[in-house]
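Project standup — Tuesday

K.O.: blocked on the structure for the chain from last sprint. Re-posting the sequence here as requested.
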Amino acid sequence: MEKSDSDWGAAAVSVVLASASSARRKVLQGAGLRPVVRVSHVDEDALLAKLRARAAGPAEQVLALAQAKARAVAGELETSLSPGADALVVGCDSMLEFHGEVLGKPHNPEVALARVRALSGDCGVLHTGHWVMRLRSDATEAVAEVGRTESTVVHFTDFSEAEARAYVASGEPLEVAGSFTIDGLGGAFISGIEGDPHNVIGISLPLLRKLAGELGIFWPSLWS
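H.V.: unblocked you, prediction finished:
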């Protein structure tokens, strides 16, 4: 049976974001949360190599990366929790699937420009893996955790070669999945989406609320 508001009392749950993404942090802050950022330092390339060696799809890849990030940070926090502490660790990872190819962060201008050109007038699917763990210092059971991938279709408008070059020159596309972001300069080149808009930024609020609920957390109790 789902608990009512009064059942939760004033117990506070701290939110720990296992990601260096300022965009994800801002989404959580805009939703009334006050996340503490802890970067995981997971070897993403090594993990991806193993996943792709067994032909894991993009939805599975981002979920595995999110899980690795959350578990790495949770492992560091478990030994330092103060008595009575209750923490929700959130790990995320995003990739854009485009015509069967998985596009992560391009890192360099040449790769970014090629991707931006290809996306003009086309569409892709943005997959974001979410892995959530609840840590409680006074819990007798094992750490509770749950994860899922959210997918959103992104439609790109037609844009010119000059616009593509200017966008890449801005530096924004270099460190974002698929070389585009909806919450910055790239938003002017996205004509529509099918699904959760926050997921395109890198974290789905409706999914996060659902996962937190599965771990026994009343979402409004996270509001700061």
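K.O.: great, moving the ticket to review. Strands lie at 14-17, 36-37, 86-98, 101-103, 123-136, 144-156, 190-194. The chain has one domain: 11-222.
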